[in-house]
Amino acid sequence: MTAPFGLRLRQETTVDDPLENVQPYPVEPFPVKIWRSAGGKGTRLFRKEEEEDHLAADLVLVGPEAGTDVDRVEWAKQLVRNAVRSPHTREAYLYALEQFFQWAAGRSISRESVQGYVTWLGEMKFSPSTINQRLAAIRKLASEAERCGYVDSATAQAIVTVAGVKQKGRRLGRWLAWEEARTLLQAPNPHSIRGMRDRALLAVLVACALRRGELSRMNCDHLAMRDGRWVFLDFLGKGNKVRSVAVPLWVKQAVDGWLDTAGIEKGPIFRRVAASGRVGEDALTERAVWQLVREYAAQVGIGELAPHDLRRTAAKLCRSKGGELEQIQFLLGHESILTTERYLGSEQDLKNAVNDALVFE
After folding, report:
1. Exposed e or buried b for every residue in 20-53, given b needs 16+ CB within 10 A?
2. What DSSP string describes 64-113?
3. pLDDT confidence of residue 260
4. Burial zone of 58 (CB within 10 Å; 0-12 exposed, 13-18 middle, 19+ buried)
5. Helix H or strand E segment including 6
6. CB under 8 Å to 354, separation ≥6 — which residues?
7. 88 — phi, psi (to 5°)?
8. Per-residue buried b or exposed e for 90-104, using 16+ beta carbons within 10 Å of the residue's own CB
9. Count of CB atoms situated within 10 Å of the CB of 2
10. Which of 58-67, 269-278, 290-299 has the least mean pLDDT?
11. pTM to 2 decimal places
12. Tell me: the pLDDT tens digits for 16-59?
């Protein structure tokens, strides 16, 4: 028989599932068998005379009992899924594992195979951030396998210590100029119920700098009056941090127009709208928000655009109107003002670039 990660082994020992009592993310238990090599630490990748890397050992994981319908990809995803708290990170890691196993095509997970995968991603011109994210998912799998007792520390560290890719310089990201933002906000049809929803949604993204997850979870109860103005009050942001954001009057009017037309008095603010115009009960998903922004950007000829680019746009436009850096930090919900500075490109002013003064005519 073969272990789930393609390693042929010799010894078989039956044990209780160590995942059964893991907290706070319990895994659905199933009978398992631990497969070990004769040495107990997996098969070495190099013969003794060719050995160059003492950490190059196969990662020996637990396979389901014979007859259970669990393949190695789903098993690995289950292990990581229940160990990652952030929904965004969880989704990214699961996709990364799918891509890795597709590339691996039956290879066992080893330091050498992971290094080969990183090299291949670089050759395929993937960005350093993408490569490092996919590597992080594989590292997480190795560390969770160690934590749950499926592999020893030395074997796990062989995977965890695979080096990532360094990114030189700093990507400033995408943002919209004033006229581009205005054009985007006017793109949805104001005479249809879906268009009214989308106008309100884009207004919130551009002016309130919400993340798409925050927007998707926004409820009518969050819209409240404080200090004589409307705010999105005490909503759950990134890292389960509670924060509040001021709502400009024109944004509040756009949201009210949508809510009144849709007949929404409680529950999610932004909901699905059927082709017939019927408003559903469920909130728009984060993916739907992402797709909506892309479609309107393409419609008005702006090009590739994501919801996070509108968040960056809000910060840029606030700064251009004299907004204080500290207040923009609060608007974005950043813990560190250095993160806000990176959003603003504070270290590089492209609009009033210093080399504009170098005229030799």
Report:
1. eebeeeebeeeebebbbbeeebbebbeeeeeeee
2. EPTT----HHHHHHHHHHTT---HHHHHHHHHHHHHHHHHHTTPPPBHHH
3. 96
4. buried
5. none
6. none
7. -65, -50
8. bebbbebbeebbeeb
9. 13
10. 58-67
11. 0.59
12. 333 333 333 333 333 333 333 333 433 322 223 333 433 333 44
Q: Would you state the pLDDT for residue 355?
A: 62
**In the block, which residue shows the tokens 């080399």?**
355
Count the helices and strands in the chain (H runs, E runs): 13, 8
Q: Which residue has the higher pLDDT, 153 or 252?
A: 252
DSSP annotation string for 260-290? HHHT--SSBSSEEE-TTS-EEEEEPPHHHHH
Residue with tokens 């960005």: 127
**Which residues are 268's β-sheet partners?**
219
Residue 148 structure tokens? 């749950």
CA distance 182 to 211: 20
Q: What is the pLDDT of residue 75?
A: 82
d(CA 178, CA 144): 47
Round to whole Å and give the CA distance between 291 and 297: 10
Q: Kindly report, residue by residue over 161-206, the tens digit of the pLDDT.
A: 999 988 765 555 688 999 999 999 999 999 999 999 999 999 999 9
Q: What span, in angstroms and rounded, lies between the C-alpha atoms of 141 and 161?
A: 13
The Cα 207–Cα 314 span in angstroms is 6
